[in-house]
Amino acid sequence: MTDTPVEESLFQIIHCFHQYAARQGDVETLSLQELQALLTDNVPRFMDSLGRKEPYYVTELFRAADKNKDNQLCFDEFLYVLGKLVKDYHLQYRRQLCARHCAQHSLY
Amino acid sequence: MTDTPVEESLFQIIHCFHQYAARQGDVETLSLQELQALLTDNVPRFMDSLGRKEPYYVTELFRAADKNKDNQLCFDEFLYVLGKLVKDYHLQYRRQLCARHCAQHSLY
């Protein structure tokens, strides 16, 4: 069975988590440094938003996602971060649509 | 700025939601029929699992996601469904890795 584009997208995101989790320490979980690298390399549009490059931003995000406070993010805990990303890119998606609509109708 | 593969994946999933939401009724939300079509067309691996093709499965999933009980799923409510999908494809990803490892090492 060939994967649909949505299935490929889901696997892409999952593969990204495991690529960074495997870097050091527990190969199944993300450390703070691994999360920082994952976000910087893979979601630059998210990180470019105001304040997200401040060192405390990723630390706070990590702390909020780390439900069991073991200083590591397992895949289920990473879903909290993914939720933030999806919401943020949803806003960007709508902004792009809006900008395209305005350009087509010469609204600026 | 060019999108990274992870960003493209996020936009793909978001675009899919809006494609189906736009079909009928409120163009910003999914009806039960739109959710059914979205899942059947885009995540066949998920739907192929035991019991998910039973009519009540998607009805129950829809009901659980519809937090404000307006009989529509807005994008934030759809995140509940997305969480289920990501967890399911994570299991499939691990099964594929395991099968590949076993094949490489002639474990079957």
Alpha-beta classification of chain A: mainly alpha
What's the order of the H and E elements of chain A? HHHHH
**Which pair of chains has the greatest number of interface residues, and how are they split between the two chains?**
A-B, 32 and 32 residues
Separate helix tally of chain A: 5
Radius of gyration of chain A: 16 Å
Beta-strand percent range of chain A = under 5%
Distance between the termini of chain A: 47 Å
Instruction: Tell me how many strands of chain A there are.
Output: 0
Overall shape of chain A: it is globular
* Mean pLDDT reading of chain A: 94
Assembly annotation: homodimer
Relative helix content of chain A: 55-70%
pLDDT under 50 segments of chain A (min length 5)?
A: none
